[in-house]
Amino acid sequence: MITRKSKREVQQMQEAADLLVATHKEIAKRIKPGVTTLELDAFVERFLEEHGATPEQKGYNGYPYAICASLNDEICHGFPTDRPLEDGDIVTIDMVVNLNGGLADSAWTYAVGNVDEKGQKLIEVTKEALYKGLAQAKHGNRLGDIGHAIQSYAEAEGFSVVRDFTGHGIGPTIHEDPHVPHYGLPNKGIRLKEGMVITIEPMINEGDWRSKMDDNGWTARTVDKGRSAQFEHQIVVTKEEPIILTEQDK
After folding, report:
1. Which CATH superfamily is domain 7-244 in?
2. Which EC number(s) does UniProt give (predicted)?
3. Has residue 250 got a pLDDT over 80?
């Protein structure tokens, strides 16, 4: 069932999102060669606890960590590890913050040290694709308008769009209806309505769009070992531009 959120619910989510944004900004300071994603995971858990919040995905369907840390060819749901980050890596940190019952969800891909030109382009195109999709997320449009904007842009830049994982509604639990594909046709799919809260989170690959699962049952990676990037915002649909709860550059 798709729900439209009250002003109180949106305010709770905004408070959680403000903390999530602050957490990502702290992570950005710490991303460098030699740091491990397990160290980042421990930092996030401690930082959230200090601010009266919890990592909502820890324990969700048995997921064991406070963050997802997806490295290079990992598309999403990567486990934090003790492997030191290396110069030239790209790593996506995805997390959900629960602050007093309000949930906020955002993923960000970070360059580690000096990333090659194609890797930099992948990151830039993925972020721009997110904002292309966001521009279509308004009352009266359809989900296909979001997906089409993302897909047409990313593919024109020479990249592919992951099909196996989507954005979603959020609140009061992590994953609510509707699913929000990052590909598709304009004027197709569920119509967006004012008050809906969804995530848009394109995962863009430098090679084949298809994925395969690791033995841990969580981590998805590219079938051809090409790199993957992801940027995610949580938004409120309005009659005008969407309210981006997780915007880092307010």
Report:
1. Creatinase/methionine aminopeptidase superfamily (3.90.230.10)
2. 3.4.11.18
3. no
